[in-house]
Amino acid sequence: MNVTFVSPFLSSIMNVLSTMAQMEAKAGKPFYKKNKIAHGAVTGIIGMVGKQTRGTLAISFTEPAILEITKRMLGEEETGINETVIDMTGEITNMVTGGAKNLLTEQGYKFDMATPTVISGKDHVVNHKSGTPVIVVPFKTEAGDFFIEICFED
Predict the structure, then answer these.
(1) pTM above 0.85, yes or no
(2) How far is CA 117 from CA 54, 72, 98, 108, in A?
């Protein structure tokens, strides 16, 4: 996978969280995902297709992280993964992908985006459409962890 695609997604998630949730996120050391099990309790996944490449982005939030983000963005305290939290996960996934798409467009890449899908539940599976390796970037916030999975064809 072309590492050019990783940085715009990382910049975009940090921008979305700082502006929309007043939350700082610190990226950890990237690693290759070895299985399809999500690292969080709820995951937003979205596909992107362009002439040069295609791939998927998934953002998997631990329950404490997404509950705090939802509280900060909506001003509502949720007690668990419910429809509001699922909708928020989809919206964050959409905003992050839109921001990354803009940054990638500046580099000459053009993409169409699908509608995000949200999956939740213990040990849920995240399927990336491409057969290429999945890069995972872990993030820490004061509220909890989340993970970005990026999978693009070469």
Answers:
(1) yes
(2) 17, 22, 15, 27
